[in-house]
Amino acid sequence: MHRTLFDADHDAFRNSVRDFVTRYIEPNEEKFIEQRRIDRDTWLHAGANGYLGLDVPEEYGGSAAGDYRFNAVLGEELARSSAAAASAFGIQYDVVAPYLVKLTTEEQRRRWLPKFCSGELITAIAMTEPSGGSDLAALKTTAVKDGTSYVINGSKTFITNGTQADLIIVAARTDPAKGSKGITLFAVEADNPGFSRGRKLDKVGQPEADTAELFFEDVRVDETAIIGELDRGFIHMMTLLPQERISAGVANLAHARYVLEETLTYARERKAFGQPIGSLQWNKFLLAEMVTKLDVAQAFVDKCVAAHVAGRLTAIDAAKAKLWTSTVQNEILDQCVQIHGGYGFMNEYRVARAWKDARVTKIWAGSNEIMREVIGRDLGL
Asked: What b/e sequence results for 343-379 when a residue is b if at least 16 CB atoms lie within 10 Å of its CB, and e otherwise?
């Protein structure tokens, strides 16, 4: 189905991103996988192209695109090539950027955003804890006030960009008596005494997106490290999570679409029983169903992106997009592996790597069980 979401400017931007991916991501894929991180040089190239500061005002070094459709184009093109690249860079330009643009002071913006946009400053956001998972309101990391400072203690896990991040937005409990209303966000710089990184986590998929455990042992930060308002961190996170979830939806479908296109080509060329395997009725019907599911999901996600551009995307619709696209993505990739047969289980084939890379999308950005809870509550249940 022809998409009407984008115009000529977005198409030109897509060509630019595709060139970047072809030059800097794809040739280095095996190296990134082996070292389990994307090189700093690649981050700098992304910054030089203006990709990391799409939502950042020009006065701080950003592109000031003012149109989330550019973010969507970037996410699609990165995901088509590498789900891990879409994840790593997406944390920067799609997830952390709104916190640093919308919730910071002028001094904070001038301090961090220029290097954030250039790729010199890699960022992460530390919400998830070993004992809490998707239950952000139950986090145990604390920030205790001591004069004009706060002392942070606790740990975080599954943090994307965790091994390389120079600046981490940390959710910590500042008032235990207030529950979810007693959480504050802090910006912790990596050279702060008491901050340390644990092991680089060995994941099933997306190895080139570095993921780590983070530890905070009497990390002292000044009041000027607070992001947003004191004790309103949970509200800030809930307000900004819809963008993370629609970002996930965009990447999920782009990732599945490219592999499905490869599978269609394979089904036309691979022969069994004297004919292309795609012409066998079961495979033909299966591929027809996959293409239909993908197009229908794409129509909903495009509608959500348009709503987000207009400032009307609800948390409920973002949850639906995240839930459904991750489900469709994983169904499609599993079926693509099946169509490839034994070759689909070989790491040298993109379909096998994509299948492993996709599994986490039903877990992160709020597990699909949480998405169903969010949607169900909106139904009055």
From this structure: ebeeeebbbbbbbbbbbbbbebbbbbebbeebbeeee
